[in-house]
Amino acid sequence: MITLPLILVALGAFILFVVYVMWRLKKAKRDLDKMFATVDRLEQEKAVAQAQVKQFEVRKNNEKNHRTADRNDLINRLQQQGDLRD
What we know:
With 86 residues, the chain is mainly α. The protein is 91% helix and 0% strand.
């Protein structure tokens, strides 16, 4: 009833379908690997940027404290010497 050519066509179609599915899965895996690599790179860049921001804030606070300390020391010395004018 079922002829050999019909079986071969069905088998060929099935094999093509399996090959197509495998190709799509491999492509999806490559895409996911690229995305994960991008995420890792962006996380590293974010960590570097956050470290730079923190260093800037620490430096800013240190400079502010340094300027304030120098000003206060100067005022105290002037008061001690009696040279501070109101």
